[in-house]
Amino acid sequence: MIYLRKSYYAVVVLALTTGMRQGEIFGLKWENISFSKKSLYVADNMVTSAENGELLDSPKTVTSKRNILLPNRTIEILKKWQKYQGDYAEKWLGVYENTNKLVFTNSFGKMVSITNFTKRYFRKMLRAANISDDVTFHTLRHTHATQLLKHGVNIKVVSERLGHSSTSVTMNIYAHALPDMQNEAVDELNRIY
To answer: Which pLDDT tens digit goes with each residue over 81-107?
Structure first.
C-alpha cells in the first residue's frame, strides 16, 4: 500500500536523522513538530501493552523529553508526508480516523503495531536495500549517534539528541566510535604543532 510505503520511508529518515527511539517516533504528534523552528519535541512514547495493545505513555526518562533540531531534508520529507497524510485522510473520511493526530499511523489512522511494522515492512525494507536481517530498528539510533561522533559533533550534543541522562551513558554506549577520534585528535595536534 502506497500510504504505508511513504509513511515508513519517512519513519526511517526520521530515525536516522534524529536518533529517536522507535516508540518515540510512533508516538510523535504533529503538534510537536515546528517546521518554522526546524525542530520537534519528544513528548510521548508509544508502548505496547498485552491487555490494551498500543498506547501513548511518557518517554523513557525525564531527559527523554527533549527538543531535537531537524536537518532541512528531514523537514522537506515531513512536510510532504503531512500533505500526503492529509489528502489521504480527506479521501478516506470515515475510514481513516487519526484521533491522536499522530505523525505515523496505520492505514486506518490507528497506532502502528510495532510487531506488524517490523515483520511486514522493516524486514522487507532491509532486504530491498540488501542489508542484513541482523539490523534492528534500534540500529538506526546507533547509526545516528555514531555518525555524529565520527564527524566531530560534541558528545554533549549527541547525548542531548538521544535523550540520555548524561554524557557518561553516551560514552559507555558509543566508546567503540572513539578510538578513531583519538587518531583524528593526534592528526589535528600534528597540524597545530
So the answer is: 999 999 999 999 999 999 999 999 999
Rounded to the nearest 10 degrees, what angle do helices 178-192 and 137-150 cross at? 10
DSSP H stretches of helix in 28-177: 72-91, 114-116, 123-128, 137-150, 155-162, 167-173
What is the separation of C-alpha 55 from the centre of its chain, rounded to a whole number of angstroms? 18
Q: d(Cα 143, Cα 154) in Å, to the nearest integer?
A: 16
Residue 177, pLDDT > 70, answer: no
The span from the CA of 88 to the CA of 83, in Å, is 9
Query: Residue 133 in 3-state DSSP?
Result: coil
CA 152, CA 166: separation in Å to the nearest integer? Answer: 18
pLDDT of residue 54 exceeding 70, the answer is: yes
Please compute the mean of the pLDDT values over residues 39-60 and round it to a whole number: 90
Residues 6+ apart with CB under 8 A from 165: 61, 62, 63
- Of the CA atoms within 13 Å of residue 26, those in its CB half-sphere come to 24
pLDDT at residue 32 greater than cutoff 90: yes
